[in-house]
Amino acid sequence: TTVTVIDKTAPAIPKVNTISDATTYVTGTTEANAAVAIKRGSTTIGTGTADSKGNFKIKIAKQKAGTKLVVYAKDAAGNTSTGRSFKVVDKTPPATPTAGTVTYKSTTVSGKAEKYATVYVYNGSHYVGKATVSSKGTYTVHMKKQKKGSTLKIYAKDKAGNKSGYRYVKVK
Question: What pTM does this model have?
Fold first, then answer.
């Protein structure tokens, strides 16, 4: 009597490297030669096959930060792993904030920046103040009067810790 052993064991849950909002390839490891699928909700956004060592690299379109993706592996016998779910990480820095005119009499500096980011104001290395950007993309930092001719350095930092470029404003 010949007995054929049937594969009923699903592949291990795939290991996936960090996915950011700038990622165009999802990489990771799973069972060797397994088919790999990446889903956003019920939509498959990428498929591929792991190599003989279990490594995979699958092209996807860039995804928005915070998007939930799930990766599944399916072996040759048709067994599907449990999905590995993860959120797309925000790696995009905010745009450099705008800033209005500041005079030696000003007690605020206002402008526009990425919604919900925090705007920081420095005079040289001296911390002047900060404010959270509104849902409309505007901010106002309250501060003490600054010396005429000094230069304020303003930047935004989003909730993911990404930092914008600097805006320099000379106090008039």
Answer: 0.76
